[in-house]
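Example 250.
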Amino acid sequence: MRIRYIVVFTGAGVSRESGLPTFRDVDGLWIKYPIEEVATIDALVRNTEKVLEFYNIRRRKILEAKPNAAHYAIASLEKKYNTVVITQNIDNLHERAGSTKVIHLHGLITQNKCMCPTPHYYDIDITDDRTIDLRLGDKCEGGSQLRHNVVLFGEAVENMEIAYSEVQKADIFIVVGTSLKVYPAANLVYYTRPDAYCFCIDPDESLNLPANFCHIKSRAVKGVPWIVNFLLENPQEISSIMKEGKIVLE
Ligand code: APR
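Predicted structure in complex with adenosine-5-diphosphoribose:
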């Protein structure tokens, strides 16, 4: 197959080696912070200050983090292929690594939005420390409370239609660092074309993957550059890697 179009679908695992925690690993965010207190639409309404503070802390940690080898390898695919990144992550590390087509399903922490019926979105000025944190009483021009542009549990996920259509166009579909436990995002693995080459890069070998995926058991910083190097230097090797079914890199 001639490879033209690559879609990379990422979760928190791709940013773990940038120092950002995942959600469901032993040191994950949802182990430390109960979801129902900080990450549901009900919590935002009931306890706005606590939710704003939780995302202020996450925003500052993300702004301090740097893209890692996996983010840069994904961005380097654009040198040769039409590449789209679909991410569940609210960090902007793919963009900072150079990826130019990034679809965020769960929001983007460098933006605020208001709570008007039709929300307005605002890019924050990350160079101005005064604009980093959101406080109760920070309002949009329509008078509604500002919040971080993050999709909370109980809210509709954004950009799913475009994400489905991108996956259906992919010749190569690479899933990196997601437990595939949160829907509808996790449905993407079922939208690949029958002739697409599908890979999953993750140290967890218990993931619930469709049979057409080749699992590369590895951390992102090792597994992503490894497969990207083949795609850039020896794309004809991809079909034989697929036939392996499972590869252990660690
Ligand atoms: N490299 C690659 N993958 C890793 C690494 C690593 N170094 N470390 C952990 N992982 C894998 C884990 O094995 C797991 O499969 O990353 C995945 C992290 O899973 P989750 O913590 O569930 O994160 P994610 O899948 O992104 O969560 C999806 O859930 O709570 C919501 O909105 C939140 O976007 C998030 C969504």
